[in-house]
Structure formats: C-alpha cells, structure tokens
Amino acid sequence: MADIASEFEKLLPEVEKPGRYSGGEWNTPDMSSPARGDMCFCFPDLYEIGMSNLGVQILYDIINRAEGFRAERCFAPSLDMAKKLREHDIPLLSIETKKPVKDFTVVGFSIGFELLYTNVLYMMDLAGITFRAADRKEEDAIVIAGGPCSVNPEPFAPFFDAIVCGEGEEADLELLRRVTEGRDKGLTRAQILNSISDIEGVYVPSLKREGYRVKKAVVRDFENAPYISKPLVPTVESVHDRATLELYRGCASGCRFCQAGFWYRPIREMSAKRCAELAKDMLKSTGFGELSLCSLSTSDYTGLEALEDELSPYCRERGITMALPSLRISSFKPDMAKDSRKSSLTFAPEAGTQRLRDVINKNVSEAEIDKISVAFEAGYDSIKLYFMMGLPTETDEDIAGIAEICRRLKRLYMEKRNKRGLNISVSCAVFIPKPCTPFQWEEQISFEEMKRRQFYLRGLLREIKGVSFSWHGAETSVLEAALARGDGRLSYVIEDAYRAGACFDGWSEYFKWDVWQAAFEGRGLTMQMFTRARDLDEKLPWDFIDVGVDKKYLAKERELAYRGVTTRNCREGCNGCGALKMGRCTIL
Ligand code: SF4
Description:
The protein has helices at 2-11, 19-22, 47-50, 54-65, 79-87, 117-127, 168-184, 189-196, 259-263, 272-286, 304-318, 354-359, 366-370, 373-377, 396-417, 447-462, 474-484, 490-499, 513-522, 528-531, 551-563, and strands at 37-43, 69-75, 106-110, 142-146, 162-164, 202-203, 214-215, 243-246, 248-249, 268-269, 290-294, 321-323, 344-350, 382-389, 423-430, 467-471, 545-546. It is of the alpha/beta class. It folds into two domains: 2-215, Cobalamin-binding domain (Rossmann fold); 242-489 and 525-572, tm_1862 like domain (pyruvate-formate lyase- activating enzyme), CATH 3.80.30.20. It has a six-stranded mixed sheet. It has a four-stranded parallel sheet with strand order 13-14-15-16, covered by helices on one side. Helix 15 links the parallel strand 14 (382-389) and strand 15. It is globular. The structure holds iron/sulfur cluster (SF4). The site of iron/sulfur cluster (SF4) has 12 residues, from loops.
C-alpha cells in the first residue's frame, strides 16, 4: 500500500489542483490506529463539489466517532487525474490513508443527482470494482449507495449490493457494524446481505421479490441527532466554503413539484439553542468566514429570530457573514440579510401567474411579489429570480407572466429608488416530474416544446433592459427526467452510455447527448418511454419504498392542482399526508 501511495504522490505535481487528492485537511480525524471495519465514502463529482455536501460530512463524522470504525473519502478525480491513474496502473485511492477504495469493508456512494449515474461507474471503473453486484466475488467489498436519488433507486440498483433509502445517520453505521461482524464470523456474502436487510431503510436488490417493501430511514430525534462539530476545511476552494447548519428537515410548504419537500417529511426542527451551540462550535473549529443557515425554506424556521439574536452579535464581532440561502418572499425582512455582504437577493416565485402558482401550490401572491420592493428600500440593486417551465397546465400566458413580473419589479424599483438600474437575473429550469411528488404521474413536455417555450421567453425578456436570462438545457432535462422515473432496464443504458464515453453529464462541456440517445436506442428504449404520463393506477418503479407520505395523499394533491386549489402550509395545521407514521412533525 505504501508503494501505491508514494507512486500516487508523485503524480500530484502533474495534475490540475493537486489539493483535490492530497488530503490532510484541517480537522481530519486521527487515522493512525487500526479499525475493525472501514467505509470509503465515494462522492461521484469533483472534490470542490463533494466537500460542500453536508450529508457526506455528517456521515463521515458519525463513523469516525464510533469506536473501532473508520470512514475515509474519495471524490471523482478530474479527467486529467484519471488519465494518469490509468497510465500508471494505480487504482482509485482514499484521500486520507491512500488505501485502494476496493479494499474497504464497505464502499458507499452518495448519489444526489441523476446526471451523476455515469460518474458512479467511472469511479467503480477506476477503483477496479465490478459494476454489477451479481458479478462480484465473495471477498469483494460490499458496495452501497445512498443520498437523495434513493427515492427511486431502480435505474442504478443492479450496481449495488445494498441501497440506504432515506437518511443515513443511523443506517450507515449499523450497516458497517453488521458487515464487519459478518466478515469476522466468516459469513458468506449472501448471509451478510441477509443480515443487513432488516435495517430500516436498507434495500438489498438481490432479495427483491414480489411484494418486497422498504421503509425509508428517518432520524426521529433530530434535536439530538449527531451533527458535525468539527467540519473538514477544504484545501481547494469548494463551491460552498463555509460552515453549514441544517436548521430542520422536511418542508411545510407542500410545493407540488418539490421532491425534497415530500421525501424529507416528517418536518423536524432543531431548537435554536442547539443550532446556536453547533454553529459556534463549527465556526471556532474551522475559522470559516461564513455561516450558512440551510434548509428547504430557511425563513420558515420557527426559531429563526431567536437564532439570529444569538448568532448575529457573535458573527458581527468576528466579521463572519451569515447567509440565508433560501428565502420565502412573504417572510423576507431587510434585516434578515443585514449581516450578508451580498448585494443580490434570490427569490423563487417558480411560475409567472397566480393561476399557475396555485396549481403548483407555491403560496406566493402577486402582493407578496411586490414585497420584494422592501429589498430595494434596503439598498439592493440586483435580484435573482428562479422559475420553472413546463409545469402541468402551463400556457404561453403563464410564461409571459414571468416577463410581466420583471417589468413590475423594474417599476417598483423606480418608485422606491427614483432611478433606473435594477438588474434582474432570471433563471428558468425545466420541470421534471419527480417521484414522490403529487406530479409523479405527469408527463414532461416534449423536447421540441421545451425549446419553443425557452425561445419564447427569451424573446420576451430581451425587450426588458437589465434582465439577463439563463435556462437549463432541454437535453439534460429530458435525460434527468427519464433517469429519475426509470426502472432496472436503465442500468444497461447507463452502463452502455458510460462505456461509450458519457461521464460528468452534469457539466455542459462534457455532456454527450448523442451518446445517451444511442444508448437508449441500443436497448430498444426511448427517453419518452420514461417521461410519458402515467396512469394513476399504474405500478410505479419506486412504489415499493414506503416514504411515509401516502400515495393517496399525493393523488389528492394532484387533483387539487388541476382544480387550482391550494393546500395550507403545515404550520397552520396538519394536512394528513401520512408522514406522521414515520415520526413526529415537531412544528405541530
Ligand atoms: S401534512 Fe401533517 S404529517 Fe404531513 S408534513 Fe404536514 S404536518 Fe407533517
């Protein structure tokens, strides 16, 4: 191992950003004593993206605190490093001890986005891990996956021995313990997989039969759940170079397109007291100059004022910026961002008309959009607006409404500031009907229609001075939808696409549309077979996962959407979604 490590070290001066692979970050746990069992967390994207992933850091911390166990990390190497590894016949190594990834007791991939599926194979390939679980040998590492894509694991399930569906805080360590014990006792691979199959949230694809069910893993006591007190400080500037505090899980808003909002129910808040303690601990132990208070809708957090009262003076005295990444227009107050050095605010009305916002249950009224003018009074000259295109029932009138909002904000800015000059940046994603949402049965609009609507909006926005427009590629949006709603057949498509050169699909400079089209065709499939509308009584590939929220509730929400009827925010009362059977909603 020492030889591989020193061979590897010699490559570092020859690649771009060697700090991605060198390790030795501040707060790295002591790895000198031997471990009974170890796990390598593999993040299928570059170091600077992966180091910003809160989930990986939490799980890494939990395992490293457990007596006798160890967690290390590995990120997808950039293409220049991959080339060097292949040239020198060096397998993919962990960052901390430079141990070959394939030699860990458990290898765990965190998959947060469908366009990372080929990167999983890229990492397995470089590591020397056999792609398909069914082809692995007795002594091979147990390879698992987790992360947000576990909501529908079927397209990638054949690549894994097990998948943790839901939250990994309790499941991952228990799984590592049982695999380690199984190895110590000399159990066969099949016996080990059997032994982990009753851990809440664990899906073992090789055991799936008719009637097989998996209950999503949920951290019931979020207040006392383990959290990172000493985050790793990246050696290469990461996407979010800051301490991140998760205020709560789940979301009370019930936006009908939002997968995370339903998947992470029940809603569990951490007290402001504990949040403040954790934030101070993280800031002390890292020296970060920015603290991010994050969750699906941060300004909805019950303890926000108390937390700000506690943290604002602390941060101000130390020159630390406090960032609130996701604001709800209706609850925005100018002093919420008083510690932010940023000159731009971000809001997400999601749709251009009240009618369509009611359909998607985005409870933002026209009057509330006008409230953005409070930000102009507070001195903001720049604003980012997020919208979605292709939502169910959308017409050109709704798209024109986006341009109308921009015009109105320009007028309001003029009134408040008595000058022109407001910069508006409009970003428009394409709607993807994701599993575990009331829109999981919807079809995605066709590729041609996406292009038409994008050009239509671009034309409208060009007429307004000071408005910039960016949009998500139609190609990647169709692929993302197909992969999100797919079944086991797609594992062959993913493998074919990878072998034909698809990799880093989320990066526009690397995305190969023709390779993906050929991969679908080669298996007698089309993307439209997966983006089509589904009947309400059709069996969906992800139905075997009990997510807490009832399918009937999702169907009812869909029906309300078509009638344009909104559902109240859960903070005003429980709407009976079914998530309570998985634990308490602490906001009730
Ligand atoms: S509907 Fe009720 S159970 Fe479901 S998330 Fe809202 S408060 Fe919790």
